[in-house]
Specification:
By secondary structure, this protein is an alpha+beta fold. It has 2 helices and 6 strands, in the order ββββααββ. β2 and β3 form a beta hairpin.
Length: 129
C-alpha cells in the first residue's frame, strides 16, 4: 500500500448493515495552506457517520487527509470537499464533518458540514436515568 498522499478513498462492507451505529474518527494533524498567504493552517477534523452499506478504510483516509498538506484551501471549502468526497464513496445514512482550525491572527474557525440520506430516519435518542 502507498505511503504517499492520495485522493483515493477505499471502503469496506459495513459489518452490521441492519443496525444504526456511529463511527467517529478524529484527525488532529490535518494541514492545508491558506490560499491567500500560503501559510500553513492546522486543524482537527472530526468525522462522525452512520454507515449504510460501506465504511471508509482508515489507512486510505489517512493518506487522503495528508493530500491536502500542500494545497491552498479556505476552511469552508476544504471542510465541504472532505464531506462531498466521503459521501461520494460511502453513501452513508448520515455524516458530519467538524473542522476546528487552530488560531490564526487571534481568530479560531470551526466549520461543520452535514449530509443526511433523505430515505433514512434517525433512531430516537434514549435518555437513561
Amino acid at each position: 500500500m502507498s505511503s504517499k498522499p492520495s485522493k483515493k478513498l477505499d471502503t469496506f462492507d459495513n459489518p452490521k448493515p441492519g443496525r444504526d451505529f456511529t463511527i467517529r474518527i478524529d484527525t488532529p494533524e490535518f494541514t492545508c495552506l491558506c490560499p491567500m498567504t500560503g501559510q500553513p493552517d492546522f486543524a482537527t477534523i472530526t468525522i462522525e457517520y452512520v454507515p449504510n452499506k460501506l465504511c471508509v478504510e482508515l489507512k486510505a483516509l489517512k493518506l487522503y487527509m495528508w493530500s491536502f498538506r500542500d494545497e491552498g484551501a479556505f476552511h469552508e471549502a476544504v471542510t465541504n470537499q472532505i464531506l462531498d468526497d466521503l459521501v461520494k464513496v460511502t453513501s452513508p445514512n448520515f455524516m458530519r464533518i467538524r473542522a476546528e482550525f487552530n488560531v490564526r491572527g487571534g481568530v479560531y474557525t470551526t466549520v461543520i458540514a452535514e449530509h443526511k440520506n433523505e430515505n433514512w430516519k434517525a433512531p430516537e435518542l434514549v435518555n437513561l436515568p
